[in-house]
Design goal:
about 240 residues, alpha/beta, 7 helices, about 25% helix, globular, transferase, Methyltransf_11, methyltransferase, SAM-dependent_MTases_sf, S-adenosylmethionine-dependent methyltransferase activity
């Protein structure tokens, strides 16, 4: 068995290293600009170079920190996303742009993100859609080396299931294609076969929020015995 295919390739240093990367980054930035005004808090964590290139300046998040696995320009902190050097509940938002696609332990990253985010904290993540045009483009000779392996791409439905199990509420989701004809194809796909694949687009972006609902134990109601009254008892009282 070839074990090399199980190891994802190293994460790219810039969006231009990806096929149509500049166009995808531009489209993602438009979504972030639309969602940013609703985000608030103090500290925003961006993981790796692709996340660092995106902006949430329109939000009410006061401070941004960039963390990567290797030292490079613009990085504030060296660390691993599976073991983040932050106290539990110390971050208000986290941006993971294609971080899961280039990791051997994507579920561990989501678990760690859930730990370091405060209650009602925000999580924004993007990924390649294996059942969309990114999965098809993976087999093109010119793009094969510029995309992660098909088995490393995580379907959006799978990611959302993981998020829900970790206590996140998915607030927004959107899809982005390699070209500007994707909105038309996306509407056709949702109309024709919405249950098979939600979108044929190459990239998805998800906005989720960590929820913690207090669990109040419900006490079992005890039946109160109804007093038995008889006519002769009333006469005795008189």
């Amino acid at each position: 068995m070839n074990t090399a295919s199980k190891t994802p390739p190293p994460a790219p240093d810039s969006w231009r290293a990806l096929p149509r990367g500049a166009y995808i980054a531009e489209q993602l930035q438009q979504r972030l600009d639309r969602w940013a005004p609703g985000l608030f808090g103090f500290t925003l964590l961006k993981v790796d170079a692709l996340s660092a290139a995106l902006s949430l300046e329109g939000s009410r998040l006061r401070q941004g920190v960039v963390m990567a696995r290797a030292e490079q320009e613009g990085v504030d902190l060296i660390g691993d996303a599976t073991a983040m050097p932050f106290a539990p509940g110390s971050l208000d938002a986290c941006l993971l742009a294609h971080v899961l696609d280039y990791s051997e332990h994507p579920h561990a990253i989501l678990r760690e993100t859930e730990v370091v985010l405060r209650d009602d904290g925000w999580l924004v993540l993007t990924g390649f859609n294996p059942y969309g045009s990114a999965g098809w483009a993976r087999w093109l000779p010119g793009w094969r080396r510029r995309l992660p392996g098909w088995r490393h791409m995580l379907a959006p439905a799978r990611v959302e299931d993981w998020l829900k199990l970790l206590g996140f509420e998915v607030i927004e989701r959107d899809y982005i294609g390699f070209t500007n004809i994707m909105p038309w194809l996306d509407r056709w796909q949702r109309r024709r076969c919405p249950h098979f694949c939600p979108s044929p687009a190459a990239v998805y972006i998800v906005l989720a929020r960590k929820r913690r609902f207090p669990l109040t134990p419900v006490r079992e109601r005890q039946r109160v015995a109804v007093p038995v009254t008889r006519p002769e008892m009333a006469r005795q009282r008189e």
